[in-house]
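Quick illustration for those who missed Monday's session on complexes.
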Amino acid sequence: MRLNAKPLHELLDLLERKEIHPREVVADLYRTIAEREKQIRAYISLAPHEELLQECERLSEKPLRGLPIAIKDNISTRDFKTTCASRFLKDFQPIFDATVVQRLREAGTTILGKTNLDEFAMGSSAENSAFFPTRNPHDPERVPGGSSGGSAAAVAAHEALCALGSDTGGSIRQPASFCGIVGLKPTYGLVSRYGLVAFASSLDQIGPMTQDVRDCALLLNMIVGRDSHDSTSLERPCADYTQELGQEITGFRVGVPKEYIADLSGQAKTRVESWVKTFRELGTEIVELSLPHTKYAIPTYYLVSSSEASANLARFDGVRYTQRVSDASDASVEAMFSESRDQGFGPEVKRRIMIGTYALSAGYYEAWYGKAQRVRALIRQDFESAFKSVDIILSPTSPTPAFKLGERVSDPLAMYLSDIFTVPASLAGLPAISIPGGRVDGLPFGLQIIADKFCEAKLLRSAYAFEQMVRRET
Ligand code: GLN
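Prediction with glutamine bound:
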């Protein structure tokens, strides 16, 4: 077995005992990349082997020993372009590191490369990348999910030890589910967004994508915390998220929302039943729950996120950022703006900007954006009352396993529906994790656990208990 197929924490143990050298891990990683990347296409840019090795040697005394991590290409890095998989930003080179990247470097990680995504993180399949689609390592005819599809595929193919993604409505969890890895969206405000190219600022969070739950906790430890550059990041007492791993969850009350499972059939339904059985074996009590406003979650999310996107993306005007057309149809500034934007943005991004601009426009604001905000409050209240009687909530991450490339591109609604179980926790700002939950139709199928805000420790402890139990059984 190559070293890069081992989780980070095992590698750190081996390094600690001086049984291996970081150089060997890096060599194995590049070997796998050389074999698989041509087909998978997880990366938009990749660090040259020699450079990474030097950097790795330099950091070998730090806690993470110079081991490399992959970063989604909408997170700013001073030594790599940050393209957001958009033609518009294809040559954009930030002059600073995002706070999460800075924190990872301080902990002693190197940056392996920048991973592919749906343009500006808008999508559920990585097919909206302006450059190329990424393929699912479990079946190259299928999508890896999105928008953090490159990060998920890289980890699943062992082309990365672990990665960072961003999640606005499911973009860490859904690709984690499709690729059979672990992905966590933290509580809104736990992790700094400084340096993350904004999609929908009231929803965006950066989080870890890893091979297992312990790695997820390890990475979370490194990126959390108040950052004066992000006014929505919160001061929280320092926690070690690995500490509760391995503790029992006996007596936990586990909620299963009836709205999330009512329409499941076939193998997906059988899977959920098997998860419930496992949680019972772990000594928890299963409680049937109702989250009655779930049916409004998709329209609410697409109104709120598109409205915020239309405001955030206004800065890409060919002047302050992004490529400018040099041959606009007339000499006016308006023509330069609008033709630069027309050529720079892809179709899905334009669709969101149009929906959002409409929802925010005078005369329509109350009927669309205002109403969506009120429904968002109701969705949040559903969770508030649920967490009065349960510790965690269980559901599938997405209704189906990975679909085929091209299958949903011409049907945006079908595409949006793959987010049905992930957007409610996003709208409520709650932490949620996707962990491998077995297979459906021969493909990975993720189990989502949602917890109350700032209950990441409980979330990870539950996910770990499930993961260990499943490992024992197989
Ligand atoms: N798939 C969702 C969307 O297209 C979520 C994206 C995300 O979380 N960045 O908006």
